[in-house]
């Protein structure tokens, strides 16, 4: 798919589907609608439970399948254990070059239970990608949801935070990095998806509120050994 993604000119209003309306999904809905994008938002409980968020933001509450319909970007931001329960062929009706963003983390003790492949060393986003049947770009997984509302800064601002972004498709990754820039944050290329373990929970970059230099250094300092606190 590399190279097939459309370039989005400045000011282009994208069709964005958000699957998951929790802290990250809800605040991305708030920010992206405010920036003028056409946002559809879904959760596991159905569109009728999203009325308040829709009225607040102007987003369209939809079913999970409808969230991907005609979308140029789809954000998957649900509990990791629920990823296999998403509908098969979820992206069949999406734009031909749909970019899929994975914000998820593996929390075996608190929420997800044991996932053998991840315990054996498969990066969390690679596991998600396999279940979705579509390439993903890992972003926002170590971001505090409230920072999406409170911490945007213009380019060049000394307090502008940087977020790591990992993925195999350079064109898709660039779409995500441009979107994050529009949201008011810098980005650091964290490599391909096989390197995305560098931004998983309890790594130096996870939850780090810092600029490009510090985020780059934190990614380099990560250990591939999964910490005990995040093992089943």
Question: What do these coordinates show?
Answer:
With 232 residues, the chain is α/β, with parallel strands linked by helices. The chain is 31% helix and 14% strand. The chain contains 9 helices and 8 strands. It has helices at 23-34, 51-57, 64-68, 108-112, 116-119, 124-132, 145-150, 170-183, 212-220, and strands spanning 15-19, 38-42, 60-61, 73-76, 99-102, 137-138, 162-167, 186-189. The chain has an 8-stranded mixed β-sheet, sandwiched between helices. Helix 2 links the parallel strand 2 (38-42) and strand 3 (60-61). It is globular, with a radius of gyration of 17 Å. Residues 1-6 have low confidence and may be disordered.
Provide a brief overview of the structure.
The protein is an alpha/beta fold and 232 residues long. The protein is built from 9 helices and 8 strands.
Task: Name the descriptors.
232 residues; single chain; 9 helices; disordered N terminus; 8-stranded mixed β-sheet; alpha/beta; 31% helix
What's the layout of helices and strands?
Blueprint: E1 15-19, H1 23-34, E2 38-42, H2 51-57, E3 60-61, H3 64-68, E4 73-76, E5 99-102, H4 108-112, H5 116-119, H6 124-132, E6 137-138, H7 145-150, E7 162-167, H8 170-183, E8 186-189, H9 212-220
Parallel strand pairs: 1-2, 1-4, 2-3, 4-5, 5-6, 7-8
Antiparallel strand pairs: 6-7
The rounded distance between the terminal residues' Cα atoms is 35 Å
Percent helix, as a range, is: 25-40%
What's the arrangement of strands in the largest beta sheet?
A: 3-2-1-4-5-6-7-8
Mean pLDDT equals 94
Structural class label = alpha/beta
Percentage of residues in DSSP E strands: 5-15%
Main pleated sheet: 8 strands, mixed
Radius of gyration: 17 Å
Secondary-structure element series: EHEHEHEEHHHEHEHEH
Number of strands: 8
3D shape:
globular
